Amino acid sequence: MESIIPLVLNILTLTSILLLVSLGMAIIFGLMNVINLAHGEFITVGAFTLVVVQAAGGSFWLALLVAPVVGYLIGLVLEKLLISRIYQNPVHAILVTWGLSLILQQVIQLIFTANPQSVSGPFPGHVTIFGENYPAYRLFLIATALATFAAVAVAFKKTRFGLDLRASIQSAEMASVMGVNPDKINARAFALGAALAAFSGVLLAPLTAVTAYMGINYLARSFFVVLVGGAGSISGVAAGSSLIGSLETILSYEIPATVAQALVLILAVVILRFRPQGLVPA
């Protein structure tokens, strides 16, 4: 390697991507214990929101505001119609969300065709850091990921919603006695997870081809980020993203990226074998 700077920046970029795509999973799977195989499709919904907004003459910033709203509303409707009925049955959750994933993929492909779509980010140039040129948009992505993580962490530790959600997860009956409506909290939490996934989709779209199946690429990794970091711990998402992002980036310098991803996921399984509670237990 000619310089350590590009490696460090690439590690930060991939860590930020994993952090963004995993925050929604941390809420739905890590906190609510719902195995959501449609998580990737909410990322795709966010990416295609940017496609539609830019095609209509709107800006990246408008899409960044609209996509979480779209994701939230879709998540809220799906939670009310389907997800709320399967909280106590993991097998049903897998089957239902897998079916949702397939349906959403086909609907998106019918609307937008199978052709890859391209979008533009707000910062097309490069920034010189210690003599190395690095894409400005990727630096923006890193900063946005940190800000988003901080906002979510504060929301779950300091706001009434976060306290109610944690109380409901620990004991729904006790939460009800304290005046918390578990059904309402669960619906809002699932919708928030979907909104965060859609938000991440907008941020990822300028870095990749936007297709109906793009979300699949992040499904397994987001699961492993949450598990390795510590299911039930928002802080664990940062730890899991950092570990997996660092290992995958370093390995990708020496071996093909797909092989690096596979090796990192195998290593994650080994870590979970010896530390099933994750790096940062709840």
Any overview of this molecule?
The protein has 282 residues and is mostly helical. It is 72% helix and 3% strand. The chain has eleven helices and two strands, in the order ααααββααααααα. The protein has helices spanning 4-31, 39-55, 60-81, 90-112, 136-158, 160-170, 172-177, 182-204, 216-229, 234-252, 257-274; strands at 126-129, 132-135. Helix 2 runs parallel beside helix 4 and helix 10 packs across helix 11 (257-274). The model has no long low-confidence stretch (mean pLDDT 89).
Short characterization:
It is built from 11 helices and 2 strands. By secondary structure, the chain is an all-alpha fold.
Distance between the termini: 38 Å
Strand order of the biggest β-sheet: 1-2
- Which residue ranges are poorly predicted, with pLDDT under 50 across at least 5 consecutive positions? none
In total, the number of domains comes to: 1
The level of helicity is: over 70%
Total beta strand runs: 2
Let me know the largest β-sheet: 2 strands, antiparallel
Class from helix and strand fractions: mainly alpha
Rg measurement, Å: 19 Å
CATH class bucket = Mainly Alpha
Mean pLDDT: 89
Estimate what percentage of residues fall within beta strands. Answer: under 5%
Order of helices and strands: HHHHEEHHHHHHH
CATH T-level fold name: ABC transporter involved in vitamin B12 uptake, BtuC
Query: Based on the structure given, which CATH architecture is correct?
Result: Orthogonal Bundle
Give the count of helical stretches. Answer: 11
- Described by the principal axes of the CA atoms, the overall outline is globular
